[in-house]
Write a structure and sequence with these properties.
Blueprint lengths: L1 H19 L7 H6 L12 E12 L10 H4 L3 H4 L2 E14 L2 E17 L5 E20 L7 E25 L5 E28 L2 E11 L1 E7 L2 E10 L2 E11 L1
Antiparallel strand pairs: 1-2, 1-10, 2-3, 3-4, 4-5, 5-6, 6-7, 7-10, 8-9
Length: 250
């Protein structure tokens, strides 16, 4: 972790030195008076970024308690792909540094049929929520439109896996019917993340962000039906993600 943070800091410093040799941010007073000045992205201290992207789970093996991953063909591979939602807040206390918070939500879903006469269609819904403080390092503006950044965060991660199944049966009149049964496995744990990306500045109020990142965490226990179960092997919650978002600067 320390080596990664040192490497990120070195890259940011190198990019920043390059940016200082270019036009960079111009007179701050002119920026405040002209909203078309794209080269002054840091005149507003409060930045909000809403982004959407793709997440790829690094978990290839699962505990026997989460049996659907292991018994249904191709189900595990399908559940490794999901949608990544993210909301970032940053307060720029320095021209190259910001502190803030991250809210992140990941979801993977798959429905399947086990081929059992007693069972109808089944489904898995995998959710991973994260919230925590963040620290960001970013360059000065390069060529009036571009800013490169790196971010680190650590906080609370929540794992929820909802397994549902339709059970075929008959009612008291002998007519076929179906009922839904399900189990929710959940657990809180420590999580952390690293990301890097670039912003394209439209004006001093609006930017387009693109980033690639990693979120890490694991659980050794899960709770289901008010009981806590010890897993034989930890459930890996880590994943890579690619996101595109809009940054609003106030």
């Amino acid at each position: 972790m320390k080596k990664i943070l040192v490497a990120i800091a070195a890259v940011v410093c190198a990019l920043n030195l390059n940016a200082q040799n270019q036009q960079g941010c111009k007179n701050q007073q002119n920026c405040q008076n002209d909203s078309t000045k794209t080269n002054c992205c840091m005149t507003s201290p409060h930045h909000f970024t809403m982004s959407l992207g793709y997440g790829f789970s690094l978990s290839g093996d699962h505990d026997n308690l989460l049996q659907n991953y292991n018994t249904v063909e191709n189900h595990n591979s399908k559940m490794r792909h999901g949608i990544d939602y993210r909301l970032d807040y940053e307060y720029n206390f320095h021209k190259n540094f910001a502190a803030g918070a991250v809210f992140n939500m990941y979801n993977a879903f798959d429905s399947y049929y086990e081929g059992d006469k007693m069972l109808g269609s089944s489904s898995d819904d995998r959710w991973i929520f994260f919230v925590g403080p963040s620290f960001t390092a970013h360059t000065n503006v390069i060529s009036e439109h571009y800013v490169f950044f790196a971010k680190a965060t650590a906080g609370l991660m929540n794992f929820r896996n909802v397994q549902r199944c339709l059970v075929n049966s008959t009612d008291i009149m002998g007519n076929p019917s179906q009922s839904m049964v399900g189990t929710t496995y959940k657990r809180y744990t420590f999580g952390y993340g690293l990301s890097a990306g670039a912003s394209y500045i439209f004006n001093k109020y609006l930017s387009l962000d693109c980033s690639i990142g990693y979120m890490g965490g694991n659980v050794s226990k899960v709770k289901a039906n008010d009981k806590t179960f010890e897993l034989e092997e930890n459930e890996d919650l880590s994943r890579f993600n690619i996101n595109v978002g809009v940054k609003i600067k106030l």
